[in-house]
Hints:
Strand content: 5-15%
Oligomer: single chain
Largest sheet: 9 strands, mixed
Amino acid sequence: MLPTAISIHADAQRLKLQRISMTRFLLTTTTIFLLSWMAGARVVTADSHNPHRPNIVMILVDDLGYSDIGCYGSRYYQTPNIDRLADQGMRFTDAYAACPVCSPTRLSIVAGKYPARVGLTDWLAGDRWPDNSPLRHSQWQKYMPPTEITVAEALRTNGYETAMIGKWHLNANKKFDVEMQKQTAADVQGFEVLQPLGRNQSDKQVSSMTDSAIEFLTKNRECPFLLYFAHFAVHTPLEAKPNLIKKYEKLADPSDPQSNPIYAGMVETVDTSVGRLVATLDELNLADNTMVVFFSDNGGLHVIEAPNTPATSNEPLRGGKGYIDEGGIRVPMIVRWPGVVPAASTCTTPVSSVDFYPTFLEITGTTKPSQQQLDGESLMPILKNKGTLQRDAIFWHYPHYSNQGGLPAGAMRQGDFKLVEHYHSGHTRLYNVVNDIGEQHDLVAQMPGETAAMKKKFYRWLESVGSRAPSPNLTYDPSKPLYSKASKAPKQWQASGKAILRAEEIE
C-alpha cells in the first residue's frame, strides 16, 4: 500500500525526531568527551596508516551519458579535468545507475536501497501514462519517506559535517502537501548545509554552486565532511556560455553522433567545476584524506524532448535516458583516493549506485543504522584491488512510460549477461553485454535454460523487495493507438510517427 502523509507522520515522524534529538544531544553534550577520545584513541578508517577519518566528495552530474567524457571515448567533448581524475584514480567500465531517470537513482545513493524497495520508481513528479495502454498504472511513491535514514544522517552521528549543494529532487510536491514537502527536504534529512540554488550565469548555476562547494571545503578543512554536490547540468533546458557554444560549433563534425555545441559547452562547464574542486582539495592538503566520487544519475538524453535536443549520443551503448537499455543505466564513474585507490586503474566489475552508502559507512567507520536496510555492498575490496564483491547480480524495476519514449521494463545483470523483461509487450530479452555492449543480439533462443533461471531469479527479487507492478488494463482496446491524442505522446514519438501506433507495434 502506498504510504500516506498521515500514516508517515503517525508512525514514523516520531522516530525521525528522536533521531534528530539524539544526534543533537551527542553533538552538544558529549563534545569534550569525543574530542578527548579522538585525540587519544585509534579511529577506525579504511587504512590503519591514516590517522584521520576520510572526507567524501560526491559529484553527481544530471543526465551525463556514458560516452560523454574523453576517457570514456568522446572525441568531441573536452574534459581534461575529469580525464585527469581518472588518471589519478579508478575508472569503472560497468557502473550502473539504479534507474534510467533521476529521482530513483538519487534515492539509491542517499538511502542505499533499490528504488523498487521504496516504491519510488520514477522521477518526481513524472507521470506520463498512455490512455490506451495494455497496462494499468500502478501507484508509486512520490517522495522519499522521511523514515529513510540517509547516509548524511548516519555520518552526522559520527561527527561529520554534511552539505548538499544543488539538486535534491526527493521531496514531496508542496502543491499537494506543504507539510510533507518540509519534512522531506534535504536539510531535515541529515544535510546541515544546504545550497539548493545558485546564481545562474548561462551555465546551469555550475559556477556559483562550485563557489559554495569550495567555501564549504575551506570552512571544514579541519573536520571530517561529506559534500554531496548534485549538478543541474547537463539536464535540459540546454544552456551554455556563448563563447563555449561558438567554440564547439567550430569543432562539430556532423558525422559524429555527438555534435551538439550547446551540450558540449555544458559538459566543459562541469569539467571546469570538477577541476576547481579537485584543485581546492589539493591546495588545502586534503587530497590524500578525501575520496572523490564522480557519477551520473542516468544515461544521456539521446532523443528529442526539449529545444536543441537530442543532447548527446551514448553509442556504442543502445538507448539512453528513460530506457532500460545500457545507454539509460550504464554511466561514467570515477573514484579518486590517493594512496588507497590505485591511480590509472580500471574496474570491470558491475557496480550500482546502491553501493555508495555502505562504502561510505565502511571508510568512515560509521555503524550502519539498525533501522536502515541496505541493498548495496561496500566497494572497498575492489577499490583497493584486494578482493571481490559477494553478490552475483544487480537489478532494475522501471514500471513506467518515460518522457523520452521508454517503456515499462525491468532488468537483471548477472555476470556477463543482462536479462530484460518488457512489461509492456511481455517479451523477454537476453544479452551478453560484455561481448555485445550495444545489445544487438538476443540470446533467448540460444540459451533457454539460462534465460529461464535468470527470469525466475528476477521475479523472486521483485517479490522480495515488495515491488509495485502495473496490472492488465481491462479497458484496453488493441485496435486503437496507445495515445488517443498524438500530442500527449513523447516528443520523440511525435517526431518519428510512433504517436499514432498501437501498443503491439511498439517495443
